[in-house]
């Protein structure tokens, strides 16, 4: 039987006094959330901006108050490692993708009651990436078995799994287009492509080649104009989703593990093994700021209003604020 441990008395948050905005340093740290003994591998901001979910190299899902840093609860999942976390569009559910041993599952949780709603088990490998359709009716999950699966959110029924010819190895990341008519995937370490798919037919409509090694993260801009990919080749590429042309080529000092567009689509955040989170201007490719951290950053996520970033740094969840 799964139990939920409330940790309000154990909440660990260091709140940094926000200094006056410095034009040369437009981002500043405001919270450092301590509640994990292992590295944080993913963070996800709730759609209403009030909570941050995090998971990592253990089986526990943590839920934090975004404004105060209070650790609201921690939930022991059945996975050995939590590989992905995603909120439903209405914020009423959390999808937690896991792996390790026989526990290759996506668990659906109610973040208000901490009740587990269902477990999706038809995965061929680790659930590296999970994503809800924009209308909330489907859950998409990529896995280490080289496939992308889709489930009906109301029933948990497996709708289809796309495998075979388009794949030669792991699918590390998936993301829907804003209207749900398409989605993208990133693979590696053999194929190393970004693929654009038609959601209705499940067919590949575009294949983007340009990365020299594994693509760990993909994202679709909120205005539907561009897509981004992050790779072990130390680069982030911004692509035209129609032509497949590379519009911007952005560089880190080590493998790039996560990308996220700002809610207005004008900025892109990327996190890397070089222990930085970098913020870029999407239109020009200019580096706007580089946030130097003490630990590896596997995942980065924007607040819904675009004013803050949350990301993992070692075993911490860091929250930084953008100067107005």
Short characterization:
With 324 residues, this protein is mainly β.
For the record, the CATH architecture stands as 7 Propeller
Overall structural class, as computed from helix and strand content, comes to: mainly beta
Q: How widely separated are the two ends?
A: 47 Å
Mean pLDDT: 89
CATH class: Mainly Beta
Strand order of the largest sheet: 1-2-29-28-27
Question: How does the major sheet shape up?
Answer: 5 strands, antiparallel
Radius of gyration: 18 Å
Number of strands: 29
Counted by DSSP, the helix tally is 0
Q: Show unreliable segments.
A: 1-11
Shape: globular
Describe this structure in words.
- By secondary structure, the chain is mostly beta strands.
- It has a single domain, classed as YVTN repeat-like/Quinoprotein amine dehydrogenase (Methylamine Dehydrogenase, Chain H), CATH 2.130.10.
- The chain is built from no helices and 29 strands.
- It has strands at 12-15, 27-34, 40-45, 51-56, 60-65, 71-76, 81-87, 94-99, 106-110, 115-120, 129-132, 138-142, 148-152, 158-162, 170-176, 182-188, 193-198, 204-209, 215-220, 227-231, 235-239, 246-251, 256-261, 267-272, 276-281, 287-292, 300-302, 308-313, 316-322.
- The strands form 7 sheets. It has a 5-stranded antiparallel β-sheet with strand order 1-2-29-28-27, with no helix packed on it.
- It is globular.
- Mean pLDDT is 89; it is low at 1-11.
Write the layout of secondary structure elements.
Blueprint: E1 12-15, E2 27-34, E3 40-45, E4 51-56, E5 60-65, E6 71-76, E7 81-87, E8 94-99, E9 106-110, E10 115-120, E11 129-132, E12 138-142, E13 148-152, E14 158-162, E15 170-176, E16 182-188, E17 193-198, E18 204-209, E19 215-220, E20 227-231, E21 235-239, E22 246-251, E23 256-261, E24 267-272, E25 276-281, E26 287-292, E27 300-302, E28 308-313, E29 316-322
Antiparallel strand pairs: 1-2, 2-29, 3-4, 4-5, 5-6, 7-8, 8-9, 9-10, 11-12, 12-13, 13-14, 15-16, 16-17, 17-18, 19-20, 20-21, 21-22, 23-24, 24-25, 25-26, 27-28, 28-29
């Amino acid at each position: 039987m799964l139990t939920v441990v409330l940790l309000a008395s154990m909440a660990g948050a260091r709140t940094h006094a926000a200094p006056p905005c410095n034009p040369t340093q437009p981002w500043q740290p405001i919270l450092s959330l301590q509640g994990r003994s292992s590295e944080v591998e993913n963070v996800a901001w709730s759609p209403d901006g009030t909570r941050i979910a995090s998971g990592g190299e253990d089986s526990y899902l943590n839920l934090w108050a975004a404004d105060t840093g209070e650790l609201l609860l921690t939930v022991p999942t059945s996975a050995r490692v939590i590989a992905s976390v995603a909120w439903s569009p209405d914020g009423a559910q959390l999808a937690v993708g896991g792996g390790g041993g026989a526990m290759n599952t996506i668990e659906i949780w109610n973040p208000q009651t901490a009740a587990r709603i269902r477990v999706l088990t038809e995965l061929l490998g680790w659930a590296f990436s999970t994503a809800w359709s924009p209308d909330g009716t489907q859950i998409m999950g990529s896995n280490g078995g080289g496939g992308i699966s889709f489930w009906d959110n109301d029933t948990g029924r497996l709708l289809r799994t796309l495998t075979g010819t388009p794949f030669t190895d792991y699918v590390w990341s998936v993301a829907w287009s804003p209207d749900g008519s398409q989605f993208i995937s990133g693979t590696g370490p053999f194929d190393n492509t970004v693929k654009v798919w038609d959601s209705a037919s499940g067919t590949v409509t575009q294949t983007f080649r340009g990365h020299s090694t594994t693509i760990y993260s993909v994202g679709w801009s909120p205005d539907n104009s561009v897509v981004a990919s992050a790779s072990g080749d130390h680069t982030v590429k911004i692509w035209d989703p129609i032509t497949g042309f590379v519009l911007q080529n952005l560089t880190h000092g080590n493998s790039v593990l996560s990308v996220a567009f700002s809610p207005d689509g004008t900025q892109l955040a990327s996190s890397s093994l070089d222990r930085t989170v970098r913020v870029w201007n999407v239109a020009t490719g200019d580096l706007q700021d580089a946030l130097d951290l003490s630990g590896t950053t596997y995942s980065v996520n924007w607040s819904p209003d675009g004013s803050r970033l949350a990301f993992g740094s070692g075993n911490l969840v860091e929250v930084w604020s953008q100067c107005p």
